[in-house]
Amino acid sequence: MTEFYSDAHRTFQDAFDTRKLADALEQRVMRQALAKMDKRCIEASDMFFLSTVDHNGWPTVSYKGGFPGFVKILDDQTLAFPCYDGNGMFYSMGNVTDNAKVGLLFIDFVNPRRLRLHGTATVTADDPLIDDYQEACLIVRVAIENIFTNCARYIHSYERLAQSKYVPRAEAETPPPDWKRVDVFQDALPTKDQDIADRSGGVISETEYRKDFWRGLE
């Protein structure tokens, strides 16, 4: 057996009589290389959740979205995905640079299933894969350390209605997000975004943006 479980895990397993089950799952479900069905799941995914840890030790989870296939399988133990234009914080990317340990969670809401991966990540701007992604800022490569599937019984089933219009594509100009038109951010925008409000219908107030963002929850 590996050291996948800590004493804290064992305490809960013993309390609920699941130590043998946990060991069986580690032996039968855990793997270090992508299986055929793992690859099919990842290749069909248009989103996943990325878990990183910041410099203060706080864990954080970030949503990453794109078109199916935006997570590339480079070999049985290596994945790559792009970092697109975000809110300018580069929070996950900075976390990866400080602490390379990451977690990836893929969820299929149409055919409920989930796949979890742990790995060591690197992030660069000069990766040769960057030319494969329209408007990508950076490329993240993940060296997989372990993979495991989880029971899907609590995953709610949803129908995919449409793909985000903000995912960069070669055949169309990517529309700017409305938050880059908000008045309080105008002086803070990077040079390339200084004219976004002029090109997109003008500046909007923070109050107006917040009201639209939370629409339906009043």
Structure in words:
The protein is of the alpha+beta class and 218 residues long. The protein folds into 3 domains: 1-30, no CATH class; 31-150, Pnp Oxidase, Chain A (Roll), CATH 2.30.110; 178-213, no CATH class. It is 22% helix and 26% strand. A 7-stranded antiparallel β-sheet has the order 2-1-5-6-7-4-3, covered by helices on one side. It is globular, with a radius of gyration of 20 Å. The protein starts with 6 loop residues before the first helix and ends in a 5-residue tail after the last helix.
Unreliable stretches covering 5 or more consecutive residues: none
DSSP strand content? 25-35%
Indicate the radius of gyration in whole angstroms: 20 Å
The number of helical runs is: 6
CATH superfamily of the largest domain: Electron Transport, Fmn-binding Protein, Chain A
The SSE string, one letter per element, is HHHEEEEHEEEHH
CATH architecture type of the largest domain = Roll
Give me the side-by-side strand order of the main sheet: 2-1-5-6-7-4-3
Tell me the count of domains: 3
What is the rounded distance between the termini? 52 Å
Morphology call: globular
Largest sheet: 7 strands, antiparallel
CATH class of the largest domain: Mainly Beta
Give the proportion of residues in helices: 10-25%
